[in-house]
Amino acid sequence: RDVKSAVSDCRAAVQMALEGRISRMDVEMPVGADYSIEKGNGRGGKRKGGGRGRLADLASDGDATAADGMPTMDQLERSDRELARLFVEMFQPLGGEHISVVFRDEGLAGTARQRWKGDAGAECRVLAVDRKGKRSSNGMGGGGKKKKKNMGFAAKMAAEIEGDGASGAFALPDGTEVALFVTPGPKELIAVERICSQVGMGTCVILLNARLSKVDNFGTDDAKELFVEKFESVFHLAAAPQEGAPGCLLHRAYPSEWILARKPKVGSPKTIATYPQRPTLEQCAEAYDSIEITDMEKTTDNVIDNVASWFK
């Protein structure tokens, strides 16, 4: 129904996965969800919502939205940062020195350090895959353009994160028991693959909003196997393939099955199908075509990528 219930269900799913000794987790929340954790607009007051804000409420405290109604980049970054903060608090019993939060670049990491400074519930090590301090709006890390050698996708990505700086390849601090990778893109996933190999299954690695279903090229067959087959989708709440099931969402909370649901114009989302594994586009389309929807509804349904607006 709202952010608070989604977070509560996510916590329960993660706990169940930990009890099942799963140490490779993927968590995906709605794009731009407002968790109402950070104080707003510098005036010292807590943002509206008190932790129970609507997922649709993306513009509280005067924040502007983009012209097309989608969240701005600042809102997206804040949403991802707040989600990471929730997970840091979840693992606080381990001790902050055993929790590593990894952002794409130093700019994002620096903002998190500033926001979480002095917060007893946010004690952790905040790191960046790209430690050169540069920001990128496309999620691919920082740095200026460089002429690349003629090499494959994976090699190019690995060269960017491992061969450019005197500090060497990214590595987790010794003693890390839980590593949270925040919105990693294709380049960062190269580092995640290497980290998983280095630390073994004894270190819990959690991807937050990696949007793995939208990654077209993992670089290698081994990387694809890791992220598609070995990372467990512990909690997922996002849009279903809209070309097959417009106006529908996909939800999964470990260890339950996957749910395909449709949000009618009035009322809560209604389950239209369940699956033991993540459904394909074809399966979603088949389930959607089997339900009865009036012509009026079909013409007014919007093709959207952000499920946040469905939770009111």
Quick description:
By secondary structure, the protein is of the alpha/beta class. It has helices at residues 3-19, 73-90, 106-116, 153-162, 186-199, 221-230, 281-290, 295-300; strands at residues 24-28, 99-105, 125-130, 178-182, 204-208, 232-239, 248-253, 258-262, 270-275. The longest helix is centred in the first third of the chain and has 18 residues, at 73-90.
How would you characterize the overall build of this protein?
31% of the residues lie in helices and 17% in strands. It contains eight helices and nine strands. Strand 6 (232-239) and strand 7 form a beta hairpin. Helix 4 (153-162) crosses helix 5. The radius of gyration is 20 Å and the shape is globular.
